[in-house]
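Narrative of activities, Objective 1.

The group set out to show that a structural description can be obtained from nothing but a protein's sequence at a throughput compatible with the screening campaign. Below is one input-output pair from the validation batch, recorded exactly as produced.
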Amino acid sequence: MGRLDDKVAVVTGAGRGIGREIALMMAGEGASIVVNDLGGATDGTGGGRIADQVAAEIEAQGGRAVANTESVAEVAGGESLLQTALDAFGGMDILVNNAGILRDRSIFNLQEADWDAVIAVHLKGHYCCSRPFARYVRETGRTGCRIVNFSSVSGLLGNFGQSNYGAAKAGIAGFSRVLALEMAKYGCTVNTISPGALTRMTIPLRENRGESVAEPELEQGGPQHVAPMVVWLCCEEAAGITGEIFHTGGGSVAIMQQPAVIKRFDKPDGLWTLDELDRLGPELVEARRVNVAVADESGGADVF
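Output recorded for this entry:
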């Protein structure tokens, strides 16, 4: 008996890396899998049948899987994921929005096409895939459903040269918070993953900084370490957890702080003078510094 017996899961970007590991682990827990992947390069160009290979791998291990090679950046592509699940397995319970591309450049060199492509695959892609599934859950009354979205520290904390990717990933965090509220009535949880893994998308970033990636690092920091948290969030044991951001990878699991007011000043007439802000502005910044220091200390690793 697996934890996901009788469940049907759609995993986008499942041809390689994190998505592939999630698809394989979910299949091992009994889920039927729609393996979605356009099969292109890391910048989103080209295409291929890598999704078929992963589906075949799952079936060879005794699981059930079908491939889908549509683009998540298009509404029709997102709708096709649900239809593929319905046609192959008669329903859909889990959506993992993992597909992504990179076109890293500093703002000085970032072209409109690079901005549009990254926003389309990541942020619009989450919309394209989530909307048909959300409507399906509402219209059918299907219970116990799950959505897991993928953000990144590049969006949550920032990273040089990734303004397009960071904007998309920050947008996904906001999208997920709203979606969690909207889906709560229907018993569908929505959580976000901030992954830390060495993949074909992240290894070149290290290499471009002149840092080598040794074989032990690939084993300890590979995409297989992200999959367990994603799969767990889709199990019955995580039914009461929604609207959270989890950071996982390289042997760590963590929960991230979400935006909240740290310190506040009120004024009856509501109109601040610049002289008042000369005094209060630094106090606000200092309150945040203290808050971050406390969070950093409490977020220290506990060895399991």
